[in-house]
Specification:
422 residues; alpha+beta; 11 helices; 9% strand
């Protein structure tokens, strides 16, 4: 009778596992909430993108301001009033009305425009950087949400295993084939597995809520677990070149701005000329006379050389940072490429033969324990091995997708100027 009951228990266990696998593999009634959908939603609601777009508009306005010429001045001057004798009151007043027109020399206007243009280019690159950063952030949040749901599945499987183990231990104790301590140990495993399942469910809910907050809309339906389980082929590591990437393009744009600042500082060393013309009225004779003038600053205390030295030093500093950025980016690309290859190999190993062997060992251990062929510790060890293998597989998938997201961010190509201006 005991062997018949053990066989029925083993059959029901295998049937339930097969049913769970069929349910997991069956297509859902609604399509999954994919990563691309999350990226589109985040791009439509992100305040970071709004700030970057506002920066482009501000740079465009600054370009307009840089191209404006100095405003003319209207000058009114009254002389020989409020004195004594002949100059008492306004009887000898001389009133001069004229217009002064500043004339910029040394290419100041074109130098200002060059600075504004370089800053506009930097602002447009900043939009692309913000988009790449948002894509990486959403991808990482999506990975965390999918991984949390996968951990819920593993925790639920372990809870089912623990529940079956408790029932099997209770049956063995009732039949006199096991000691009561086996039932107590199985009960402890069942309670711990139930607590772990509740914790995994809460963590999955938090990860999903965080993703929803980031993309600005609620997530309806299941996430794309097929994408999470997919590990692409990854061949030999390509040479880590940072040329043409967003990071280097931003550094080069900073150098271009520094170059324009040097040109502007040099142009400001040349004094501007102010031309004035007007008419003077002499109250004593009621006569009118033309007045012309030229005003040229005399660079006695500030000849602009210090500003040029400052701009040149800042240009050297920015160029040095560009070279550092190039080296650091290439090192980061090489490191992430290695992480991606290692994670891909680990995921294939943990999710392939290792996981299949762990599932088979756990299945045999459950059947053997129910039949009295294996001890309870053998069953617990097999189930823990299965849980560890599942956790290692999920961790490897997380590492693989996170490395892929970081590599995509590091190697994001810089947009062409015509594309960035749109």
């Amino acid at each position: 009778m005991y062997r018949i009951f053990a066989a029925l228990l083993a059959v029901s266990s295998c049937a339930s596992i097969a049913q769970a696998q069929m349910a997991a593999s069956s297509p859902s009634s609604s399509p999954p909430y994919t990563l691309e959908r999350a990226l589109i939603s985040a791009g439509a609601t992100s305040p970071n993108l709004e700030a970057a777009d506002a920066g482009v508009r501000a740079a465009s306005a600054a370009r307009t301001v840089a191209g404006l010429r100095p405003n003319p001045e209207v000058q009114v001057q009254v002389e020989n009033v409020g004195g004594s004798g002949l100059y008492r009151g306004t009887q000898s007043a001389e009133t001069t009305t004229g217009v002064a027109l500043p004339i910029e020399l040394g290419g100041k206007r074109s130098a200002r425009i060059a600075v504004a243009d370089s800053r506009g280019t930097r602002a447009r690159i900043e939009v692309a950087i913000t988009q790449a950063d948002l894509r990486e952030r959403v991808t990482l949040a999506y990975i965390a949400a999918v991984a949390a749901e996968r951990r819920v599945g593993v925790a639920r499987m372990l809870a089912e295993f623990a529940d079956r183990g408790f029932r099997a231990a209770s049956t063995r104790v009732t039949a006199g084939a096991g000691s009561p301590i086996e039932q107590q140990r199985a009960d402890v495993e069942r309670v711990n597995a139930s607590v772990a399942l509740e914790r995994a469910i809460r963590e999955a809910a938090v990860a999903r809520e965080n993703l929803a907050r980031l993309i600005g809309e609620p997530i309806v339906g299941e996430l794309d677990t097929e994408w999470f389980d997919r590990v692409g082929t990854y061949g030999p590591t390509m040479p880590a070149s940072a040329q043409g990437t967003l990071i280097v393009a931003a550094a080069q744009a900073d150098v271009a701005t520094a170059d324009a600042q040097v040109r502007l500082a040099r142009s400001q060393r040349i004094p501007d000329v102010t031309l004035s013309a007007g008419a003077r009225r002499l109250s004593a004779t009621n006569d009118m006379a033309a007045v012309f003038g030229v005003s040229i600053p005399f660079p006695l205390f500030n000849n602009g050389q210090a500003a040029v030295s400052q701009a040149e030093s800042e240009r050297l500093q920015v160029d040095a940072r560009r070279r550092v950025t190039l080296i650091d980016t290439e090192q980061a690309i090489a490191s992430v490429q290695a992480d991606l290859a290692n994670a891909a190999a680990t995921a294939r190993s943990a999710g392939g033969p290792a996981l299949a062997a762990a599932m088979e060992a756990a299945r045999i251990a459950r059947i053997g324990y129910a039949q009295g062929k294996f001890g309870q510790l053998d069953l617990l060890q097999a189930e823990r091995t299965l849980a560890d293998t599942n956790a290692a597989f999920i961790d490897a998938l997380i590492g693989y997708h996170e490395a892929g997201a970081r590599l995509a961010r590091l190697t994001t190509p810089a947009p062409a100027l015509s594309e960035a201006a749109q």
